Amino acid sequence: METQQQQPESVNTISSQGLLALDGTNSANLPKLPPARESEAQWQQIGRQVSDFLAQLPEYIGSLFNKYKQALLSLAVILSALITVKVVLAVLDAINGIPLLSPTFELIGIGYVTWIIFRYLIKAETRRELAEKLGFFKKEIVGREG
């Protein structure tokens, strides 16, 4: 009662064009794969193009930097200033979260401002001294007077 079915055996053969074909089938309608040699040549060509691009990348980046040097430096300064402000605000927020530390810093600041007022701003002679110190400091920083 058992029916035995035989599976058709297929043997891989290489046709005259170098493409795989199956025996016992109509190979005219089947898609054919290119030979492995052509695929290797294509991968070598793609690899060569990638290698050429990577070899020219430092020169391209260098010319791009030289062309837009001022704009890139300005952008870097702006970004670093923003990051610095964010970090300082985060540190100050963390310090303000510690009990008694914030009021202590406020008292120190008030005391320092009071000292500066009494030391430099009450008398005309000390105001001139402060103006000279600030002018000297500005000259050191900027490099010119004015």
UniProtKB/TrEMBL annotation:
Membrane association type: Multi-pass membrane protein
Superkingdom of origin organism: Bacteria
Pfam families according to UniProt: CAAD
Keywords: Membrane, Transmembrane, Transmembrane helix
Transmembrane helix keyword on record: yes
Keyword Membrane: yes
Transmembrane segments: 71-92, 104-122
InterPro entries given in the database record: CAAD_dom, CURT1
GO CC annotations, alphabetized: membrane; thylakoid
Intracellular or extracellular location(s): Membrane
Cyanobacterial aminoacyl-tRNA synthetase CAAD domain: residues covered: 59-143
The protein, known as: Cyanobacterial aminoacyl-tRNA synthetase CAAD domain-containing protein
Source organism: Cylindrospermum stagnale PCC 7417
